[in-house]
Amino acid sequence: MNKFTWAFFGTSNFSVMILDRMKASGLMPNLIVTTEDKPKGRKLVITPPEVKTWAIKEGVTFIQPKSLKDPVIIDEIKKYSLDFDLFLVASYGKIIPAHVLDIPKRKTINVHPSLLPKLRGASPIQTSIITEDETGVTIMRLDPGMDTGPIISQRKVEVSDWPPYEADLEKILAEESGKLLLEILPNWMDGTQQEIPQNNEEATFTKKINKEDAELDLSLSSDHNLRKIRAFHIWPGAFFFDNGKRVIVKRARVENNLLILERVVPEGKKEMDYQSYLNGKKS
């Protein structure tokens, strides 16, 4: 495959894993577009997105536009190349308008960690753990809608231990996405790769996760709560309240239809095994 000029749009750790796969194949972006630094944690420390940290480490030029809606962003992007061949998007986190999608010759393609049209939207990995028993990855051409563009290629991904923890599934899907992306890129760049429209009647949707979504209801099935614990393992952390204090569950398993908590983080304390937490309550 001939070298080409491309920009990468991404924000999260999933994005970084895609970048690492591209780098390993000798494909470094000419420009990275990522989101703004944001306050994180209880102390609200201003923190750069993971992709910005990667760009600095690798010496890749990056920009952090507040919005892509203003057409002046076209001039900002074209400062770095008047002749982009491709934009690649992976977990950017914002809708990209048509005036940006259409800048490169070979348009803009997106890596989406689900089998589209299932699980469109912001949280396909977490939602698949909670609601599905299988998943996969899709490479698609972006249009201005929410994950509605035509499918270039997709692949079902086998996961032996379901439900997986979010971090484990994210890594598996990023690895498979990178492989699939590199398989289709040569044909995409020379214009011979086919695409097919999505069946909108089969679409399902995900939403942006908030902290309240992660609260456990211990009156519900063990399987339901285990799925939430594993789906929200990275953020925000599945939790329950004990005497008015939040207890985050980091690890759990189900045995004989019983939910067994293994590792927890009690409010204001460090992570500990659940038995130590119970012992501390007795003392």
Could you give a quick summary of the protein structure above?
This protein is α/β, with parallel strands linked by helices and 283 residues long.
Question: How are the secondary structure elements laid out?
Answer:
Elements: E1 6-10, H1 13-24, E2 31-33, E3 38-40, E4 45-47, H2 50-58, E5 62-63, H3 72-78, E6 86-90, H4 98-101, E7 108-112, H5 124-131, E8 135-141, E9 151-157, H6 166-190, H7 222-231, E10 239-242, E11 245-255, E12 258-266, E13 272-273, H8 274-282
Parallel strand pairs: 1-2, 1-6, 2-5, 6-7
Antiparallel strand pairs: 3-4, 7-8, 8-9, 10-11, 11-12, 12-13
Helical content (DSSP H or I, runs of 4+):
25-40%
CATH topology type of the largest domain: Rossmann fold
Indicate the proportion of strand residues. Answer: 15-25%
Write down the domain tally. 2
The CATH homologous superfamily of the largest domain is named Formyl transferase, N-terminal domain
- What number is the mean pLDDT? 95
By CATH, the architecture of the largest domain is named 3-Layer(aba) Sandwich
Radius of gyration equals 21 Å
Can you summarize the main beta sheet? 7 strands, mixed
Structure description:
- It is a single chain.
- This protein has 283 residues and is of the alpha/beta class.
- It folds into two domains: 6-202, Formyl transferase, N-terminal domain (Rossmann fold, 3-Layer(aba) Sandwich); 211-282, Formyl transferase, C-terminal domain (Methionyl-tRNA Fmet Formyltransferase, Chain A, domain 2, Roll), CATH 3.10.25.
- The chain is 30% helix and 23% strand.
- The strands form three sheets. The chain has a seven-stranded mixed beta sheet with strand order 5-2-1-6-7-8-9.
- It is globular.
- The model has no long low-confidence stretch (mean pLDDT 95).
